[in-house]
Task: structure prediction
Amino acid sequence: MKIKLIDLTIMGDERGSLIALEQNHNVPFDVKRVYYIFGTQDNVCRGHHAHRNLKQLAICVSGYCTFLLDDGKTKEHIQLSSPTQGLLIEGLIWREMYNFSKDCVLMVLADEYYNPEDYIRDYQQFLKESQK
Ligand code: TYD
Result:
């Protein structure tokens, strides 16, 4: 599966911690878009889609949430619970996000602008395209 956990280096001192994200350095693509999900209500599951052509790096900068990742053959559940860890998602991968803590802020960097046409929102269609 085209996913990878990236450890982000902390610049820490007696005042606390700082992490810098730099395109094509610790973020392995050109960054065109950043969005973040917060204030998620209890028992909400988001996502339910795959992208035909998008690279994303997801970082839970506060709290925690869990990703279900599915490449059409295998499924993985990955909990993000640290601002020092980035989840890189590339290729045709179905994703769902659930188990959000109340304080969860899930930040996502992407290599393309928002494009609804890049989404596959039907799971059967995703399975069809992932077998190609
Ligand atoms: P949605 O795709 O439902 O989010 P998720 O798949 O993470 O649960 O997006 C919610 C709304 O926000 C929807 O109207 C589309 C819009 N949106 C943008 O305008 N730009 C973006 O970058 C994203 C991710 C969503």
